[in-house]
UniProtKB/TrEMBL annotation:
Protein source organism: Streptosporangium carneum
Any one GO MF annotation of this record: DNA binding
Name recorded for this polypeptide: FHA domain-containing protein
Compositionally biased spans, kind Polar residues: 206-216
Any one biological process term the GO annotation gives: regulation of DNA-templated transcription
Length: 216
């Protein structure tokens, strides 16, 4: 088989990767479908650039994507690398060998400078992905607007500037790509969930007792 491919561990199926982008996940609309509950509907994608192949995590679930056992955001792949999507695994083949450090990630080391409001937008955007529920998508512009009590138009303007700052290209799943980059850079972290406490009521009082003495 010419070109890069992935061999699915559970089934042994060998799937060639598309010339540009190959999506992988549990949903019906992906290119490679993995029937495993630990896999997100749109979990990751393989991207080919000339002779190079890298994998991008898109699921934003707590199960994440790993290469040779290590969690990644984006990672250049070598021939023989094992990629895990949740509990599902596959081995990469057909990648030309080169004297290239496999530990190099394509993610930028430094985050762009952000305003206070942009941080608020990113925090609201990523909040669903950092919840205890698995397989959730980032917040929509409408949900961010409701959360921050601003107009949806204002949120969309902030998102456009953030796409430019983080160099997120136009295309599908743009919000997911932005949220994935923000989480990978550690700009937004899960906030501990404080269990609701019952409102304290007035202290209980013992009923008053009266003692009567019979007149002697």
């Amino acid at each position: 088989m010419e070109g890069p491919f992935i061999r699915i561990e559970d089934t042994g199926e060998v799937v060639p990767l598309r010339p540009e982008i190959t999506t992988i996940g549990r949903g019906r609309g992906v290119d490679i479908r993995l029937n495993d509950p630990s896999v997100s509907r749109l979990h990751a994608e393989f991207v080919r650039r000339g002779p190079y192949l890298y994998v991008v995590d898109l699921g934003l679930s707590r199960n994440g994507t790993r290469v040779n056992g290590r969690p990644i955001a984006r990672r250049v792949l070598d021939d023989g690398d094992v990629v895990s999507f949740g509990a599902a695994r596959g081995r990469i083949g057909g990648v030309p060998r080169e004297d290239f450090a496999p530990e190099v990630e394509l993610r930028r080391a430094a985050a762009p400078e952000l305003t206070r409001r942009e941080v608020d937008v990113l925090t609201s955007l990523c909040r669903p992905a950092l919840s205890d529920e698995a397989f959730v998508a980032p917040a929509t512009a409408r949900e961010i607007a409701d959360d921050l009590v601003v107009t949806e138009a204002a949120v969309k303007q902030h998102l456009l500037r953030l796409y430019q700052k983080f160099r997120i290209p136009e295309g599908t799943n743009r919000r997911t790509r932005l949220a994935n980059e923000v989480v990978a850079l550690g700009l937004v972290r899960p906030t501990p969930v404080v269990p609701p406490q019952r409102a304290a009521g007035p202290p209980e009082t013992q009923p008053a007792t009266t003692t009567s003495r019979r007149a002697s």
